[in-house]
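Supplementary Methods, section 5.1.

A reviewer requested that the exact input to the structure prediction be made available. We therefore reproduce it here, unchanged from the version used in the analyses.
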Amino acid sequence: MIWTAFGQALPAAIGIAISPIPIVLVILMLVSARARTNGPGFLLGWVVGVAAVTTIAFLLADAVDTSTDAGASDGVNALQLLFGALFFGLATKQWKSRPQPGIEPEQPKLFAAVDGMGVGKSLGLGFAAAAANPKNLPLAASSGAAMAQLGATGGSAFGAIALFVLVASISVAAPVVVYFLLGDRAEAILGSWKTWLIANNATVMMVLFVVLGSKMIGQGLGVLS
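The structure derived from this sequence is encoded token-by-token as follows.
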């Protein structure tokens, strides 16, 4: 059951992992004066955020017995349809806000505040980037509910959620690993990653939203049967 539940949620975990702005944030922390504390702090907050949303959604869905109750199962499917429509809306927004050729994309004001952050704020920002992000919140919540809908329980559920969090955190963890493994050589690598992610954020997110929206609507169509 653990692999069935995890396999069901794997596309959503990859969707969470593809998060250009949070990856840029952790990179900025890793080139700041407090790199050794703020980078890992952001990563820890991210992991806790993804785990919290997924676990809470699983427990809520399990409490109403979505694996055997047809009405509760239909509710999960309807939620998938809602989230699918949300992602198509976000894709449209990204398309409209994409930078024109030759124009450098505007950077979020939050980037400038990273240097002044302590480890506490970095941890809180990592948690918010994972748990309150309009992309990640529905992905983690729907995945937790889907695991309960499949009938995962006990150790199987815990293992599936742990694997989900691991995959969802790989992209944010990668810059931290590169920083501690390569030391001074990491700055040039991380800098090139940051430049590419900022330049291509809108395109990457637009394509991702379309794919995720299609997947969720496809899963949610079970409510019509």
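The chain has nine helices and no strands. These observations are discussed further in the main text.
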